[in-house]
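user: can you give me the structure for this one chain? tokens are fine.
assistant: on it. calling the predictor now.
[tool input]
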Amino acid sequence: MAETKTDNSIDGLGIDVASAPQPQESAKPAKKAADKGGFYWGTGRRKSSVARVRIKPGDGKMLINKKPLNDYFAREQDRKAVLAPLKTVKAEKTFDVFVNVRGGGTSGQAGAALLGIARALKNYDENYIQPLRDGGHLTRDSRMVERKKPGQKGARRRFQFSKR
């Protein structure tokens, strides 16, 4: 009986297939670690407002520009918008939230804070991504004010036309 030699090389070139580097499965990206203060960051934008949000595990304290939520946002609609991502993941009383928001009006600032809080929660725990995405909290609302056109009174409004 003749012995058959098993060759693991490619085309007899002497390159061993068994020892060649195999493609590895891509691992999930590492969870963003908290900064040295224990905070997780998120940035939100809406219209011309920008909100920088920091969250950390705590007892549910919420400050917006160093004021309590109820003092900063007078309208119930804006307060509900800011709290929506926390309610979605059932974490209203588990995080301290600190928001610095600039630009725009109250409605735009509330929308920016909403997106910033949702992004900070996503950085805290990747398991929150799906409920936040299903609630529409991780989607940036890209609608902006249309620019004024030359020869017109506004973006769409024209000067009054007079036939005579």
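assistant: here you go. Confidence is low (pLDDT under 50) at residues 25-30. Residues 33 and 40 are 8 Å apart (CA to CA).
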